[in-house]
Write a structure and sequence with these properties.
It catalyses: 2-hydroxychromene-2-carboxylate = (3E)-4-(2-hydroxyphenyl)-2-oxobut-3-enoate. Helix content is 54%, strand content 7%. It is α+β, with helices and mostly antiparallel strands. Strands 2-1-3-4 form a 4-stranded mixed β-sheet, sandwiched between helices.
Length: 225
């Protein structure tokens, strides 16, 4: 299998993924343009059953109360450090296919980045429920995309099949949480690893450019070893 390029797995659900998204665009815009953007989400019951039929179990574990309380404090600190405004959403009965399959619609229209921006803004800056199809419809109207196509994405059999393919992909990549960054054999997990990932991508780019320059050393293949 050919080596795949640098990539990151994001989730519209995760506050850490939202923060990584902001940092990626604000601090490493060149890297953002170079890498692949791939969605991660916790599947609903029907998708989970389909994956199980393919012998795939995603490594998602429900969050404990203690971890949730810690995350509230941690995210608040990270948001304050960045000078961001945040409205913590309340998820009553989240179905993450609603937003992430809607993303696939926007991606197919070349509006994936614009959708991610709008969805993150709706969830983390306006406190909206992105599992509500009406919120997806509103994003569609904002972006000039058919509102019904976004609102109904989670009920479209073809999109659900593509969603399963995407989840198989992250399973093969061994992704266990977000944000998750991959560059060759190097893996980085967490918003605090973004800088190292960006450095790795930039280093690889420089190395590739340097490899095009003919070497003046025409000696033996072992070099100085």
């Amino acid at each position: 299998m050919a080596r795949r390029g640098p990539r990151w797995y994001f989730s519209l659900r995760s506050p850490y993924s939202w923060l990584a998204y902001r940092d990626l665009l604000d601090r490493y815009p060149d890297v953002a343009e170079e890498i692949d953007w791939l969605p991660f989400w916790e599947p609903d019951a029907a998708t989970t059953q389909e994956l199980a039929g393919r012998d795939i179990t995603l490594p998602y574990v429900a969050m404990s109360r203690e971890k949730h309380l810690y995350m509230l404090q941690d995210v608040r600190r990270l948001v304050q450090e960045r000078g961001l405004a945040m409205a913590w959403p309340v998820d009553q009965e989240p179905v993450w296919e609603v937003s992430h399959l809607a993303y696939l619609v926007a991606e197919g229209l070349g509006r994936g980045r614009a959708f991610i921006d709008a969805a993150y803004r709706a969830r983390w800056e306006q406190g909206k429920d992105i599992s509500d199809p009406e919120v997806m419809a509103a994003i569609g109207r904002e972006l000039g995309i058919d509102p019904g196509a976004l609102a109904g994405a989670h009920t479209d059999p073809a999109l659900r099949a593509e969603g399963i393919r995407r989840l198989e992909l992250l399973h093969r990549d061994g992704v266990f949480g977000v944000p998750y960054f991959i560059d060759g054999f190097e893996r980085f997990w967490g918003v605090d690893r973004l800088a190292a990932f960006a450095a790795s991508v930039r280093s690889g780019r420089t190395g590739a450019a340097e490899s095009l320059v003919p070497s003046l050393d025409q000696g033996h293949a072992g070099g100085c070893g």
